[in-house]
Amino acid sequence: xxxxxxxxxxxxxxxxxxxxxxxxxxxxxxxxxxxxxxxxxxxxxxxxxxxxxxxxxxxxxxxxxxxxxxxxxxxxxxxxxxxxxxxxxxxxxxxxxxxxxxxxxxxxxxxxxxxxxxxxxxxxxxxxxxxxxxxxxxxxxxxxxxxxxxxxxxxxxxxxxxxxxxxxxxxxxxxxxxxxxxxxxxxxxxxxxxxxxxxxxxxxxxxxxxxxxxxxxxxxxxxxxxxxxxxxxxxxxxxxxxxxxxxxxxxxxxxxxxxxxxxxxxxxxxxxxxxxxxxxxxxxxxxxxxxxxxxxxxxxxxxxxxxxxxxxxxxxxxxxxxxxxxxxxxxxxxxxxxxxxxxxxxxxxxxxxxxxxxxxxxxxxxxxxxxxxxxxxxxxxxxxxxxxxxxxxxxxxxxxxxxxxxxxxxxxxxxxxxxxxxxxxxxxxxxxxxxxxxxxxxxxxxxxxxxxxxxxxxxxxxxxxxxxxxxxxxxxxxxxxxxxxxxxxxxxxxxxxxxxxxxxxxxxxxxxxxxxxxxxxxxxxxxxxxxxxxxxxxxxxxxxxxxxxxxxxxxxxxxxxxxxxxxxxxxxxxxxxxxxxxxxxxxxxxxxxxxxxxxxxxxxxxxxxxxxxxxxxxxxxxxxxxxxxxxxxxxxxxxxxxxxxxxxxxxxxxxxxxxxxxxxxxxxxxxxxxxxxxxxxxxxxxxxxxxxxxxxxxxxxxxxxxxxxxxxxxxxxxxxxxxxxxxxxxxxxxxxxxxxxxxxxxxxxxxxxxxxxxxxxxxxxxxxxxxxxxxxxxxxxxxxxxxxxxxxxxxxxxxxxxxxxxxxxxxxxxxxxxxxxxxxxxxxxxxxxxxxxxxxxxxxxxxxxxxxxxxxxxx
Length: 859
What we know:
Layout: H1 21-24, H2 28-34, H3 62-67, H4 69-83, H5 86-96, H6 104-114, E1 117-125, E2 129-136, E3 142-149, E4 157-165, H7 178-194, E5 200-206, E6 209-216, E7 218-220, E8 225-226, E9 233-234, H8 239-252, H9 262-265, H10 272-277, H11 280-285, H12 296-301, H13 308-315, H14 332-346, H15 350-362, E10 383-384, E11 394-395, E12 411-412, H16 414-425, H17 432-439, E13 443-446, E14 449-451, E15 456-457, E16 467-473, E17 476-482, E18 488-494, H18 502-508, E19 527-529, E20 535-537, H19 540-546, E21 552-556, E22 559-563, H20 574-579, E23 582-585, E24 588-591, E25 597-600, E26 605-611, E27 617-621, H21 635-638, E28 644-647, E29 664-665, H22 667-679, E30 686-691, H23 693-704, E31 709-715, E32 738-739, E33 748-749, H24 751-759, E34 768-773, H25 783-795, E35 801-806, H26 813-816, H27 818-834, E36 851-854
């Protein structure tokens, strides 16, 4: 909860950055353990070279440079400091730097914080003074050091100062590819977790999809409960982003104005200068002089401060610390005042307002600020070092406020922070103009950083960079960085002291690609969408031959076309283009970057993408000849409540073809999917969603890997594997064993797998919802009767099932009726999470969304 200062603590010699204000003046012994700014990297107040008289050591002989007492003592100090050996370092200080000896604990805490220092360049060298650049071993952070020594012998160190500086241009960090950045940050997380320097969760997303996400360490060390992606971590000042959004929402609604004085809404506010001179704009930008909330008064009243009004009673008579609007000074109390203003304007609770108007629209089901006395599932315990240099950790329970406020102290998950970023940048929370007003930097903090309304703006003149906010407190640290231009989102939360989380986001910031690049392969579909949004069928082999390599065969407005990035397009048909992996922007087609990774499953790679976070994971299977884009209308809805993953089978869309392309046994599909999920580290349990042929593959997966599957949704699923195999051998028709053929990359022999399922069809008590089409879409006479009969037989395979006819949908129900399909998944997710049976179909919302309940028990 504070800005980072570039001034370094002369007393301790460490590159001090002002901690989150909640720890800055919280407990004196705890202060130094915070060490790092909650907001962002250090802001230097002095350039590393301006005003310096440099005497380059390159002009001297190496031997002469090494002989200088100042450099020799600096190197000896650096070796002792880097050793991390408390006894050795104490002995060095006693002999060579006695004025620093009383600060041994702080020095060792700084050593732990930095991982040690590396000398990168000497800038000035004389017998009694040396200056230069060092870099933290544990991060990319540079500092300028200045050391002076005594004139007499034996030489003693008189002073050693370190000043945080921006990374010098002489030491650039190369941008990485997306896959390289992911590999690098995952390796860093594993390394830091192994040494107990990171405990928490980290997520990298782009365009609403999760590129990398994992959890490390323990949420409760006493009970050995591990952190997961569902763990709720306290987030410190990150709540300020939510408060700023809520404030701007009320501004857009005309219920509040940015230049309204505090007293207009907080009638009778005790201090007249605050009431009349401090405005909402001042509060949002920390320029009102309203001060902090932490200190001796807070310590005495910590458990009695339960509502925003309690803080106003305690601090309301305090005058501004400076003329409002004249300068920036981080103020937690200013955001407490904003919370009180939200309550005054709405007539309700601040917590209720952000819950209904920020969290709910964004799908943030795991974010809140409930009191610490209430049991909150999956809420982690924060672990801090009780004093500088302490080797053991202890819970931060005795330092926590009674509950979080509009200034900070709530809790969230990395998945919820991704959802917040997506909702914000897609203008679901504010208008486009309101969003830009929220995020655009207004107060220059130096070195490219600006403070906006509750957000830091680190974008350059080209729009490259991030917006977001961090949070810190003893035993907790978090950071959210949103990159509007490239689409990346970095969310890191930790239940350790700062800068545990920000080390991770700091690593990614200079390494992520500056722009988004496409990795989507061609999608040749068997089912598309016509201008009215209804389903139709293609002949994939015929259209594929008509398109050159690299193009995508499609049917747009009833016409067969070949799609390529850069082609002219009409926005009228954007929904149709989307089904094939394209968007129509400014009259030209651009590819969607759908797949986050490709995973080798035995000589070829399958493409998979995941969105959202949460358990269980929904895994989506598609029909014959059709890839993951069949689910494009459903994935964003499901991702608001849990993790959802879709993939392309071999030869489809972004996946590689088998070599050589040929029909394979259907069982091979589920074996490949199992290998894909395992190697992609997408852990069970799973809810399987299958459209058309995918419905059959899902039941086969549940048969092969029963412990991994806790629910299923069939979307007009192919009913292979019924007792008697009626679908493969319908009355009066020749047997069907092969779906597809050698001309298709998506071809399977079905009979053996069908017989396997027919011999053991039971799905037990797993919740199962089946959707069947309501429009025939040209099916032969008599087929509809058989189809419904078979769907009822599939429904009877589970003792907890629902069968619904989608009245206004053809075979592609997920495309024609996405609301109905999403509700089917919601019912199964809820039942699976609570281990409860599905409700009666009539008691659900399915009929209200265009479905007709069918009785599976009827003939």
